[in-house]
Amino acid sequence: LYRSRSAFKLLELDQKYGGFLSKPDVRAVVDLGAAPGGWSQVVAGKMGFDALDEDTTELAKEESSIPGRTKEKTIIAVDLLRMTPIPGVQILQGDMLSLRTAAQIKNFLSRPGNPEGKADVILSDMAANMTGNKIADSESSLDICNAVFAFTKDHLRTEKTVARRKAGVLVLKHFAHPLMTGFRKEYLDPHFTNVAYVKPDSSRAQSSEGYWVCMGWKGLHQGES
Ligand code: SAM
């Protein structure tokens, strides 16, 4: 059983975009705004975490010696709210709008199997509490998108270093609004090989929420910061 209905949205996105969560070279996934944990449950399942419990076990040692198998898989779930544990998932309670949280995630990402401390997939299903005021609500959605992009710039592994087209994936929830179109044009389109707007079938029709599925992170261009 999944903890949230949102789990089905992620399953749908993963299926529609080539199973980006279960590629064998995916070592680290960061799930932002993860509570109660449906998306993290999906990720843990796709990454076969039960088979690679601890790298101190004989099984994990054997697995990591097989070429193409990664030594460790890392899943980090972040939320303002407390979360009940999920096998294979490291939980961090914190505010993504604070720089401190990004620094804490970086510490979790840097492990022996992942010395560069990068994530292969960054997911954000974060949403601020809606006030009903359209301007205030779209501004808080934009704040969240800006914070996620700032994190992505520093922590998403680039397509080039993975040598697989469309590697380096960002899934970003947002609320449709002209401000958001500007955000996409300025930050997403120039830096990813492919950006798609998706409204999953499992998302309520009357809600203005949608997702950008951005694949193939190119990194920043020279001179950009
Ligand atoms: N994907 C989740 C699942 O499958 O269970 C559901 C996520 S829910 C729609 C959005 C979450 O974003 C809430 O739990 C909320 O606490 C979190 N959130 C909103 N703003 C946040 C922030 N600034 N930092 C961290 N989490 C935040």
Automatic annotation (TrEMBL):
Domain of life: Eukaryota
Keyword rRNA processing belongs to the record: yes
SUPFAM superfamilies: S-adenosyl-L-methionine-dependent methyltransferases (SSF53335)
Record GO cellular component, one term: mitochondrion
Keyword S-adenosyl-L-methionine: yes
Signal peptide annotation: none
GO MF annotation: an example: rRNA (uridine-2'-O-)-methyltransferase activity
UniProt keyword list: Methyltransferase, rRNA processing, S-adenosyl-L-methionine, Transferase
Domain Ribosomal RNA methyltransferase FtsJ: 2-216
List of catalytic residues: K173 (proton acceptor)
UniProt cross-references to PANTHER family, sorted A to Z: RIBOSOMAL RNA METHYLTRANSFERASE, RRNA METHYLTRANSFERASE 2, MITOCHONDRIAL
Family: Belongs to the class I-like SAM-binding methyltransferase superfamily. RNA methyltransferase RlmE family.
The name this protein goes by in its record: rRNA methyltransferase 2, mitochondrial
Organism: Neolentinus lepideus HHB14362 ss-1
Classification lineage: Eukaryota, Fungi, Dikarya, Basidiomycota, Agaricomycotina
